[in-house]
Write a structure and sequence with these properties.
- By secondary structure, this protein is mainly alpha-helical.
- The protein has one domain: Vanadium-containing Chloroperoxidase, domain 1.
- It is built from 8 helices and 2 strands.
- A hairpin with a 4-residue loop joins strand 1 and strand 2.
- Helix 3 packs parallel to helix 5 and helix 5 packs antiparallel against helix 6.
- The longest helix is centred in the middle third of the chain and has 28 residues.
- It is elongated.
- The two termini are about 40 Å apart.
- About 5% of the residues have low confidence.
Length: about 220
């Protein structure tokens, strides 16, 4: 914790300098903003939806769970990043004299794209822990998004670093907390079929005078 705090303090101190330096190389700004698009809410939401619906269509329990947990991680990351942005109010690099200052009405800290990209990538990488190519692709895209938010002049290094760490932590937490809860640990549970419609069955207890309806839907 102590070395981390010292390193973070050093980044905060040098953020304006590094931000001003990278701003001088404006040729790659357009490319950086294109590269950072996979970290937007729309893009990561599309990834979650693609995994979920493809899993339903192909009866793939792992893909279906990946979509559900990715969506949960995205929502969690949005809550965390929004709360920190409101609390820190750090000015973005394109601001005038107030750039990099905290409690000045900005939304720079932490990087929302970074936290969302890393939370989604961590869930995907953990779900497909047996596929090295998927892991490299997931973490590679998340890393590219984080770097692009800095080179594109949208955030400081500390913004993207903290966002990346928080995103990774959120993704790991969501996976560890809910992975077995959705699919289970046995192969039989992993291979259970998805039903398009819920199963409805009557439930009653004549002796107690209780009557009702039960609903079960594996989606």
């Amino acid at each position: 914790m102590v070395p981390g705090a010292i390193g973070f303090g050093a980044l905060i101190t040098t953020d304006r300098i590094t931000g001003d330096e990278i701003a001088e190389f404006d040729r790659g700004v357009k490319a950086s903003r294109i590269i950072s698009y996979p970290g937007s809410t729309y893009a990561v939401g599309a990834v979650a939806a693609t995994f979920y619906f493809s899993g339903r269509k192909k009866d793939n329990a792992r893909a279906r769970e990946t979509g559900i947990l990715t969506a949960e991680a995205i929502v969690d990351s949005l809550i965390v990043s929004s709360a920190l942005k409101v609390a820190s109010q750090r000015a973005r690099p394109e601001a005038d004299r107030e750039r990099s200052e905290f409690f000045d009405g900005g939304t720079s800290f932490p990087s929302g794209h970074s936290i969302q990209a890393w939370s989604a990538a961590t869930v995907v990488a953990n779900e497909y822990h047996d596929n090295r190519k998927v892991q490299i692709a997931a973490y590679g895209i998340a890393s590219a998004v984080s770097v692009a938010r800095f080179t594109g002049g949208k955030h400081y290094i500390s913004d993207v670093l903290v966002g990346s760490i928080l995103g990774y932590a959120i993704g790991r937490y969501v996976y560890r907390a809910h992975h077995r809860e959705i699919i289970g640990s046995s192969e039989e549970e992993d291979e259970r079929r998805v039903s398009k419609w819920p199963a409805i069955s009557p439930q009653y207890n004549r002796g107690a005078g209780q009557y009702g309806v039960g609903l079960r839907w594996s989606f």
